[in-house]
Design brief:
Length: 133
């Protein structure tokens, strides 16, 4: 009988969990959700005011407004905060409710790519209005 055989009954499930602990990203994720939520709480009423004040305006009027950095920069911040917040929120939903590993990975990838594509489309559209001749 070896020394290792004597330890066998003393092993706990902790042995199997070692190395599978926290990814140390939870606090950062939690803070970023709160930061983006505050940004959205400030920027969405501003955008609602802008949209209501532009009722009936045409495309040229919107381009003229977005050529002004006073309006374009907060709109850029809104788009980026909105898609970042959406990505973080969907990530939590996927982690909590999807229990098939391959499907979870596929949904995380889809979520990331969709949010990046949406944010880039928004930034590109605003930049195009800002720098249009």
């Amino acid at each position: 009988m070896s020394v290792h055989d004597l330890d066998a009954p003393m092993r706990t499930p902790l042995k199997h969990a070692r190395g599978l602990g926290s990814a140390q990203d939870g606090v950062r994720h939690w803070w970023m959700q709160r930061v983006t939520a505050v940004a959205l709480a400030l920027l969405l009423p501003w955008f609602a005011w802008l949209a209501l004040s532009m009722l009936g305006a045409g495309q040229d009027d919107w381009r003229a407004v977005l050529a002004n950095p006073r309006y374009a920069l907060p709109l850029l911040m809104l788009v980026l905060a909105m898609f970042w917040h959406a990505k973080l929120g969907m990530q939590v939903v996927i982690e909590d409710y999807v229990h098939t590993r391959w499907l979870e990975i596929a949904l995380h990838l889809l979520n990331t790519f969709a949010c990046i594509a949406g944010a880039l489309a928004g930034v590109f559209g605003i930049a195009r209005c800002m720098f249009a001749p």
